[in-house]
Amino acid sequence: MFLKLFQRGKTGEASDLESNEESDDERQGSEKRLKGSAAFSKSHDPGGPGSGKGTQCANIVKHFGYSHFSAGDLLRAERDSGSENGTMIKNMIKKGEIVPSEVTIKLLQRAMEEDGNDKFLIDGFPRNEENRAAFESVTEIEPEFVLFFDCPEEEMEKRVLNRNQNRDDDNIETIRNRFKVYMESSLPVIEYYNSKGKVHKIDAAKPIDQVFEAVKEVFSSHEDRMSTRNCASISRSPICGNETVAA
């Protein structure tokens, strides 16, 4: 699982779910609403399944006051809303197709705009490099730092199998397929941020309390530094948490 801390660009804009066109007043209002921290977490891509993202995301929300949004939950809610976008999402999911990045991004933007907080933990997005590039291009939010929850595949596999959540995807075959998808799709996102010196690796094989102590050290140092700045955002990977966050 990985978490990313973002700072929103000064010229960033938020767009309406139904249209990319905004009046000056609407655009300024969107910028004002989203000014501050924006976090996004991935529970599907970076950070393997069973790496402890759900638990750590809950701790981050409680300890640091972030609002948590799940990309999957937002897509399902829109799917069931009866809207035009909802029908499109329903048909794509039924066909096993991936919902376009711009649709998920707009849902996340709307959720952040409607929330009273200025710090957001986004779960289940981005899942790959295309998601990442689209998110940063549309929102003009760039990561301040990335938390990568490093956990051996054998340990993650054991944790997932022992969760006893009665999930259809918690069998050995689908679990190993998720690891494969993670390596092929999500790991490149982590490598991209690592090349920019923004990745903090956390040993997620340790007990939960010890893992969160390491998380708090990273967050505390960045929150202290960012208290003198406008905004911050945290993101995590979908596969890490419950997601997660992903984070």
TrEMBL record:
Where are the annotated segments for Disordered?
1-56
Sorted UniProt keywords: ATP-binding, Cytoplasm, Kinase, Nucleotide-binding, Nucleus, Pyrimidine biosynthesis, Transferase
Give the UniProt subcellular location, in the record's own words.
Cytoplasm; Nucleus
Cofactor notes: Binds 1 Mg(2+) ion per monomer.
User: What Pfam family is a match, any one?
Assistant: ADK
Task performed by this protein? Catalyzes the phosphorylation of pyrimidine nucleoside monophosphates at the expense of ATP. Plays an important role in de novo pyrimidine nucleotide biosynthesis. Has preference for UMP and CMP as phosphate acceptors.
Identify its protein family.
Belongs to the adenylate kinase family. UMP-CMP kinase subfamily.
This protein is called what? UMP-CMP kinase
To which species is this protein native?
Answer: Sesamum angolense
